[in-house]
Amino acid sequence: MIAEHQGIGMTSQRTRDRLITRLKEQGIQNIDVLSVMRELPRHLFVDEALASRAYEDTALPIGHGQTISQPFIVARMTEVLLAGLPSTQKILEVGTGSGYQTAVLSRLVDRVFSVERISPLQNQARERFYQLKLNNIKLKHSDGSWGWEDNAPYDGIIVTCAPEEVPESLLLQLAPNGRLVIPVGGSHKQSLRVIDRNGNGFEQQELDAVSFVPLLSGQI
Ligand code: SAH
Asked: What pTM did the predictor assign?
């Protein structure tokens, strides 16, 4: 890795290792998820002025009223998604944002498709993927409530913004035995849901209380 990716001081490997220790203490067990998050330079996914805070376990602003998700949530959602997946994995993400969650997934699965409604965020994310040589990611500028039909079905779908209800298009774009991980609820009270498509329909589990930015319609 080149020096810029390795970081110095508050972005050093030692600082990153502390975050991984914390994630383990909070219950993250998937060693592949932990090892990808240990390597991936989260400080390149935030504004330079915030780089020194990139390895704190906290959400940070990325502009346009949006946030890069808290590392624990990224780890948790990725772990839950992977636990339900077959070996060939084609994943859809709704809400590219900074691209950090997308990048974590790209190192763990075959292909990632990611939809974002705010064009400048998508462009910055694309530039980061190019810099980091992440070549298995395809992006679309669109309202992700409709999923991304052209590439469906998906083995897994992950949504990083919260709708009030699960969008039906996403359920329909899940492959047989596919898994959807999605925060659902209004601005104050959301819960993380896991929905599995099985032979008879869909099976839902409710996990942790979470706090995501809302899923909004349209694109800008
Ligand atoms: N995983 C991202 C999360 C960013 S916040 C990260 O860690 O950086 C959630 C993102 O969802 C925002 O960028 C927001 O613009 C986007 N979003 C909200 N509603 C959307 C929609 N209907 N379609 C696509 N993206 C949406």
From this structure: 0.95
